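Shipment paperwork, digital attachment
Item: protein structure file
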Amino acid sequence: MQELFQYPSYLIRTKPFVLFGGIYQVYDGFGDLVFTCRREVFKLKKTLHLYAGDGGPEILTIHARRIAELVSAYDVFETPTQAHVGTLKRNYIRSIMRDEWEIMNAEEAHIGELREDSTQWALVRRYLLNLVPQVFYATVAGGIVAEYRQNFNPFLLKIKVDFSPDIRNVYDRRLGLAAGLLLAAVERRQR
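Attachment content:
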């Protein structure tokens, strides 16, 4: 399954016409479906399940530690082995002005951040009804390792995840894709 995480870019998009819960489809740079992510509905703690293709085996589980979404950390587990991949924690206080997440490894040591591009653009987005798409940058080991760019579409969320800045391969793609899925599931709902 590791070969599914080797692409330099992915496109995350919501599946249209889903009544309950959320279904996100993840495509590679060639437009082929690589993953399907399903969000559990009617649960107090948010949980996302990432499957290979459309109906393949479950690969990752992203599970909120707490009920309160605003102060929660999200643990990422490799489903077959239940190995802890890492944790993504939303920094609520700093996210008032611009969205910010902390990236932690499997031992829960801080290894990086995921931040919205700028405070000025973040404020414009908040007060102009999101007419300007969000852009996030992941920084690990002192350098930018990924870009998460939302395409403007009021009906269908699309986020392009680009890992090409990670030339030293220091950012675990499983954690990077989990971050993109959380941006789709959590950040969009809060708008």
